[in-house]
Structures are given as C-alpha cells and as structure tokens.
Amino acid sequence: MKKTLAILSLFFLVFTCPVFPDQTVDEYVSKKIQESYKNIKKNGNFALLCLPGTLEFGIAGNYNTWQEKRFDNKRILQEIDTLKNETNNNIYIVIQVSFIGDATGDEIKSLKIPKDIQDYIFLENNNGLFIRCSKAEISGYNYTVNQFTDHIQIALKFPTIHPETNESIFNDTETIKVIVGGLGFEDHTFEYKLPLSDYYLDAPDVLKKLYYESGIWERENESQVIVDSNPDPQPAEKKTERDYQEQWAREHGAKIEVQLRDGTRVDCLTDTHAIEVDFARKWTEAIGQSMHYSRMTGKRAGIVLIITDPDDMKYWDRLKKLIEHSGLPIDTWKLEDY
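User: That's the sequence. What structure does it adopt?
Assistant: Structure tokens below.
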C-alpha cells in the first residue's frame, strides 16, 4: 500500500514547475505543463487541467531529485526500473482543479471534490471500451477548492488491461480519452492521440538518452543511439512550436509565454495583439485560443500559422476564409519554413 502511494506521489509534481539543476530539463518540463493549458476546461470560477503521467514525463519530473541526490547513471536506471515495475499494466494521470474566478461575483465560489472521485473518472478508447479509475490520491487533506485553497491536484491510477477482453485498452485505437466526472464540468473530456510517447519526441537529449538506456524507447537503428561524446553529426531535430514562438517574437518584439490571470499562457504578446502560434493542421484550435487570449488581455486576437510543407497552405486558406466569412476580429501571420 505504502509503495503504491509513493509511486502516485511521484506524479504530484507535474504542475508545480520546480527548479531543476539542468536548466534544459527545467524548461522542457515547464513547456509540457504549458502545453496542457491549451486543453483547459472551464466551469464558472473553476478550471480543470489534465496531464498523463507517462514514464517519459515521470522520468523528466524526477530528474531534479536524482541530480540533487547525485545519483550516478546506474542508480538512475534502477529508479526508472522501479517506475517501470509499478506502472506495468497501469497508467497514472494527474488532474488539477483550480479556482480562477472572482470571489466577489455571483457565481459558485466553492467546489467540493467527492471522496469517491475515482468512481466518476474513466479511460475510454475510440472503440467505446472504457476502464474505471482504480485509485485517486488527493494532495493534502482539503477536498474543497475555493479562493483560499485555490487548487487541488489529484493523482489517478488506471489499469490498462480491459477486464472483458483481457487486452490493453490502448490496442487498436488511435486516441484515448480521459473522462472526468463528478465535478460539474459540462466539458470534461480530454482526448489524446496515441502513442502517448510521441508527445515526448522533442525531449532534450539528456532525457532521450535515459529513455533509450532504460528500454522504454526502442532504437530503430543503432546509429540513432544518443551518446553525449559522439563526434558524428546527427540529423537536425525538427523545430518545435516553441522554436517558432521565439523566432516570431524576436522578429516582432513580442514577449512569449506570458501567464494570464486564469493560469493560461499566451504564446506571444505585443503592445497590440495576443497571439496564438500553431502548426497549420491545428488552425481550428488556434482560433479559439487566440480569441480567449484576446478576451483575457483586452488586446486584438492574432494567429501565427506555421507552414512547414507546401500542402499546409490549404490550412492557411481555410483559416483566412473562415475569418473573413464569419467576420472574426483576428489578424493573421504566415510563418513559412520549408
């Protein structure tokens, strides 16, 4: 029992952004947390966030502790083996419920977390199979979110083997949904494309090295092994969304990742615009994000659409036509890189 609780507690840190000895890992963890804000769910004075506690993120999240304890590589791999054993046929997910509203307004100012919250939470694949949450651990002893206890984190444990099929719920499915009931949110579904490991392909090399050495990632080719002292040139990694944010911000004198009063972060903020930077295929999401940033800042909405392939121009055209047809107050920029 105590061992299970200890493993669950490893995932409580994901929304707290600790300072890491390795600044690269620190920035990466912060970036992943900020990406989760794009899927924020709101209900009056309250917000709901969700982040799958994959092994990749568990390793990134614990890297600071291992460095502070001066663990050598052998000991770190032993710690990862402990994580692997505890997460075998299980997945851990962290949700956070936050108070983001006005304590003087007329809306509900207090949200109580049911003590049987695990009975309201499910994993579901796109074939309709679902699995119940088997365990929920709430940070601290307070089950009520309000202006004084402005957030509560809940670590959730799910088995991955479906009891009827005796197969993994991740088999033969393109997406997995986390459905969070019991809290009164009308929009309470978080959907993720599979495999979840793809969300960490942009990890810094120090983490990728651990992913490979621990065996949670398989090398498709031995020449792809990440070795810090390898003098042979490696293929350039694809640019991330953050890379393009920084590029556009430099060129236009903007601030990046500015936190707003509801906990979300605007990608780029200028004197006149609140801007969402997104890859072309996510053009529909960019509309909603930019309009939200505009409402929160009082600045005009803007979208920077990243075009990395000539075929991406179809998304640019769709974006422009929808804005014009609907009369949306959004300005657009095209960032071509191909």
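The longest strand covers residues 90-99.
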